[in-house]
Amino acid sequence: MRALFQFLNLLSRPDPTAVWPEPPSIVAARAEIAMRLSWMTSVLGMVLFAVDRFIGMPVTADSMMTLVLAVMGALAWVLLKVRRYNSVAWLLVVFLFGMAAASTWFFGSVRTINIVLILMGLVAAGIFLSRRGLLWTTAAAVALLGLLTWADAAGLLAGQPRFAVSWRNWLSQSASLVGVAAMMFLNRTQVRLAQELHLQEATQRLRAQLDRDLGQGRFSRLFRTSPTPIFVQSMRNGAILDVNLAFERALGYTRQEVLSRRDGFLWLHDEAYAAFSQDRRAHRRTGWHSITGVGRNGQQVPLQICSERDDDADDGLRITVLRVPGHTTSAMPTVYAPLEGGQGA
């Protein structure tokens, strides 16, 4: 048993070729149903074994298969409980293939109905394992079926086939059909949850995009119509991304003349400007500083300046506000939303 767990642990290591990572909600929903089916399978195996003993059937290798079924269900429940989902899939494949091989050996012919357990193992592999796992399982199924067929043709199987049927044949076949239906139901659950999750994420993405666009639209209108001179820079390279009309009136530059340029040409580089630059580098938001601006025609314009930056890790923005002493102006605005580089706010 310890060797079996080590084998399952080896097979359940993450597969780098898997292309269908499952969200936790899908895994949780599928695991809940699978755990219910696992303990039901274990109970079914124990009940069948008890009924055989009650009606006086001799203990044969065929009747012992019901105990193997019970053990498989119990182990599957334990692995699901500890969230070893890939291990459960490999457990099903190993047990189902082993039961099919044992049934063929003791029945004496590869034509036993229990050979359908190999098909059930492939269904489990196709639903729960990666593409690589399915390929390996298919190759193992073909090789196992070929080996059993050769042993049957060579007369190497242990039993002598009997074609008498009873209610147990019908019950075992029905259990196989129910097992396949249960696995397909789990697959449908996974697909349905994945579709619902995708639709939910798409809706949330569209809502976030709409909120962002509305926020940018409000900021754009405020930015353009504000009587306070404002310009926006990139934190990454210091390039001016946008200016408003009040900035153009205050310094005489047109928007196109200042876009993509650093702001050094706009100021007289004296001690006052050096103090503002140091404050701007050290703090996210500066106080008001008195500096001297340089207009388009070289005229010097006394100004007060205040700057604030956002916290974007990729390429943050810096918003700088100017005011002419003696003119009424608004307080420093808050950074509401990112602006498109080189475009209007």
Automatic annotation (TrEMBL):
<feature type="transmembrane region" description="Helical">
    <location>
        <begin position="87"/>
        <end position="107"/>
    </location>
</feature>
<feature type="transmembrane region" description="Helical">
    <location>
        <begin position="134"/>
        <end position="158"/>
    </location>
</feature>
<protein>
    <submittedName>
        <fullName>PAS fold protein</fullName>
    </submittedName>
</protein>
<feature type="transmembrane region" description="Helical">
    <location>
        <begin position="63"/>
        <end position="80"/>
    </location>
</feature>
<keyword id="KW-0472">Membrane</keyword>
<dbReference type="InterPro" id="IPR035965">
    <property type="entry name" value="PAS-like_dom_sf"/>
</dbReference>
<keyword id="KW-1133">Transmembrane helix</keyword>
<dbReference type="InterPro" id="IPR000014">
    <property type="entry name" value="PAS"/>
</dbReference>
<feature type="transmembrane region" description="Helical">
    <location>
        <begin position="113"/>
        <end position="129"/>
    </location>
</feature>
<dbReference type="Pfam" id="PF13188">
    <property type="entry name" value="PAS_8"/>
</dbReference>
<keyword id="KW-0812">Transmembrane</keyword>
<feature type="domain" description="PAS">
    <location>
        <begin position="215"/>
        <end position="271"/>
    </location>
</feature>
